[in-house]
Amino acid sequence: xxxxxxxxxxxxxxxxTLEIYKAxxxxxxxxxxxxxSQMRRxxxxxxxxxxxGCGRHGDAELKRFMVIGMGSANELEYQLLLSKDLGYLDxxxxxxxxxxxxxxxxxxxxxxxxxx
Length: 116
Hints:
mainly alpha; de novo design (two linked rop proteins); elongated
């Protein structure tokens, strides 16, 4: 069993989730149960799965939850693109969030490779 708070990838994923929550506060009200909700769920799913995997026994289970977190990161990647294309995020802020997301995805991928 590991302390998820000690993992840099969890720290980065948590920070990204906070950024997504702030960004989606300004989305149109009619997106509250649509894109806003989806983005918040997919972003928070990344650090949540890291934390859950750390609470399991063995590297195989930890790896499984890291892979699930990667799936959520991929969902968020599309949702960010959609947000930009709909005009909810300006290009610069989209780029900033996308770069942070790519960093998290690389860290998750590296972690999974170490667990093999």
